[in-house]
Amino acid sequence: MSDQEDATHEPEENPLPAPDPGAPGPDSGTWESTTDPDTPALASETWDSTASSAPPADLSQSFSQPEAVAPRRIPHLGHLVLLAAFGAVGFVCATVLMMVALHFHLFGVTTMEKAATDVHYILGSEAAIYLITFILGFLVFPLFWKQSFFAGVHWRGAAAWRLSWRLPVLALGCFALALFDDLLLPGPKNTPIDEIFRTPGAAWMMFAFGVTIAPFFEEIAFRGFLLPALATSCDWVGERFMHTRPRPLDADGHPQWSIAAMVIASIFTSLPFALMHGEQTGHSFGPLLLLIVVSLILCAVRLKTRSLAASTLLHACYNFMIFSSMMVGTGGFRHLDKL
Hints:
Oligomer: single chain
Number of domains: 2
Strand content: under 5%
Order of helices and strands: HHHHHHHHHHHHHH
Largest sheet: none
Shape: globular
C-alpha cells in the first residue's frame, strides 16, 4: 500500500469529543452558554421548559370560574306582548262568532246595539276571548319556558290551599271596604251593569260568570303576566343603572323582586284593572277607587304568597260576597228594582 493511501486512513488530529452522558442535551430544561466557562450565564440564556407552557395565575383562574348566567325571570314583557297578541286573536274570533250569532238571530238579537246590552252576547264574547287567549297561551308558552304553563305563572295551588281559611276572611275585609265605599262615595244609578241586570236569568248568569270564569282569567292576565312583567322590568332598569347583579330565583324558581319594583308594578297593574271594570260602573270615582284598592290587595297577596292561585281564590271569594249581597237584597234576584 502506498504512503498516500496510508495517509487517507490516518485519524484526524483533533477529533470531536464523545458526548458526555451526564451533560444536558439540547432538549433538556436548562441551557447555558459554553463560550466562556468562567462567565456566569446571562438571564436570557437560561430557559425553563415549564415556564412557557403554564399560563399566568390570574388567567388560569378566569378559565376555571364558570360564567355567571342571569336567572330566567318569567313572565317578562316579551311574554306579556305575546299574550296581548293572543288576546287580539281571541277578540277577532269572538267578533266573528258574534256576527254569526246575529246572522241567525240567536236569542232574538238582530243588531249590534241590542247585542251590546244582551247578557248572552256580553258574557259569551268575553268567555270566547278569555278561552281562546288561554288555549293559545297554554300551548305556546311552555315552548319558551321549558316548563308547564301553570308552573310558569307560579300557580302554586298547594300554597293557596294552605291559606284557604285566611283568604275568605281577607275577602270579607274587602267586602267591608266595598260597603264603606258605597256609603261614602256612592256610584251613579243606571250604569251599564244595571242595564244587564234586567231579568233574574241574566243576574244568575252574571253571578256564575263573576265567581268562576272572570276571576280565573283576569288573575292570569293581570297578576300572572302583567304584575311580574312590570316588576321584572323595574328591577332590570335598576340593575342597569346601579350596575348590580340580578337577584337569584328562590327555591321554587320564583323571581325575587325588590320592594320598589313590587310597589311600582302593583300600582301600574291596578290602574288598568280598575279602568277595565270601570266601564261597567260609568267610570264613577267611588267604584273606581274601590277597584284600585281591591286590586292592590290582590297584588299584595300574589306577591306575599308567591301563588297566583291564592289571588284567584281571594278574587273569587270577593266577587261571591258582592253578588251574594245583591242576591239577598233583591230576594233571589226577583226584585231587581231594589238594586
